[in-house]
Write a structure and sequence with these properties.
Structural class: mainly alpha
Largest sheet: 3 strands, antiparallel
Helix content: 40-55%
Order of helices and strands: HHEHHEEHHHHHHHHHHHEEHE
Strand content: 5-15%
Number of strands: 6
Distance between the termini: 34 Å
């Protein structure tokens, strides 16, 4: 994630409030050069707007020259997602106006325009344009972020895991759930130290429970399942899945192909939980959704590879 892109986005004047929200949310996925990508459903959840509004916001941001279309795409889960560039070199459009507004507040007595020397009095550190003035620690962080090349991959991996949890639960789960609230509850659990694999396994155990087999049963919403700790009741039923060794145990070239085409987050969410059957030379997945995702990701590089659903 590029802190510079987020700071830049927050300082801009966007055409609408929705456009500003999308600009800031997308900036969280930008790399050190201002290149960013994120799926529309993810932006819709984080910006708290519908997907149509996200498309309109992106069009308005390009029209306002706050986002530049690179003409390149990221292949993500079988879909091509456009890559955008933040024109960070254009500076912070409204920073001066913000500082003037702070100067005009009752807490200040001076009406002079802020200068680089006086800005520090407002709690803002002037930007240093010369790389020689950056501390070694800051240079190291910047270089590490630039070399990573997968800005926002962690957050995209979390969203993929969230979608896997949705798919693992009961059939009517999505119909009775508030997705934005459920996404927030999922992130809170991850921040508290829980793992997505455990939560997904618990969701699958809940779906397989006798309760969910009843025709008249309406499943509890995802946000209640996660936020109220109801998932803990299914840990024992999911113990076999939780105890399963983590990480891909099959041929390294298969995982390398997945990472090269779809990214590390995709491999963690869909390939790593699968089992490699050496005798049959095939990948065995726990869910049909995982079979679909991996088949689509590997059909070009490994045409003869068998990917099936079964017990892992």
């Amino acid at each position: 994630m590029s802190g510079e892109a987020v700071t830049w986005a927050k300082a801009q004047k966007a055409p609408t409030g929705s456009a500003k929200a999308v600009l800031v949310c997308l900036a969280a996925y930008a790399d050190a050069e201002g290149i960013a990508w994120a799926s529309v459903p993810l932006l819709a959840i984080e910006a708290d707007i519908d997907e149509r509004s996200v498309y309109r916001a992106l069009a308005r941001l390009k029209g306002a020259q706050l986002l530049e279309a690179t003409g390149e795409n990221k292949l993500h889960r079988g879909k091509l997602i456009p890559l955008y560039r933040y024109p960070l070199e254009r500076g912070f459009a409204s920073t001066r106006e913000r500082l003037l507004a702070e100067r005009a507040s009752p807490d200040t007595v001076s009406g002079e325009d802020p200068s680089p020397d006086s800005v520090s009095g407002l709690g803002v550190t002037p930007c240093q344009s010369s790389p020689d003035t950056v501390s070694p620690k800051e240079k190291g962080n910047y270089q590490e972020e630039a070399q990573d090349g997968r800005a926002g991959e962690t957050r995209n991996a979390r969203f993929e895991a969230f979608e896997a949890l949705e798919a693992a639960g009961p059939k009517l789960w999505l119909a009775v759930s508030d997705r934005a609230t459920a996404w927030a509850a999922f992130q809170a659990l991850l921040a508290a130290g829980e793992t997505s694999g455990v939560l997904i396994a618990c969701a699958a155990a809940y779906a397989a429970s006798p309760l969910c087999k009843r025709r008249d049963y309406v499943p509890m919403p995802i946000e209640k399942f996660l936020g109220f700790g109801r998932w803990r009741a299914f840990v024992e039923g999911a113990s076999s899945a939780i105890a399963r060794p983590t990480g891909w145990t099959g041929p390294a070239d298969i995982r390398a192909a997945v990472v090269a085409g779809q990214g590390e987050g995709f491999a963690v969410s869909w390939l790593d939980p699968a089992h490699w059957d050496e005798a049959q030379r095939r990948i065995v997945c726990r869910t049909s959704l995982a079979v679909e995702r991996l088949t689509e990701a590997l059909r070009t590089a490994f045409r003869d590879l068998s990917i099936v659903r079964g017990e892992t």
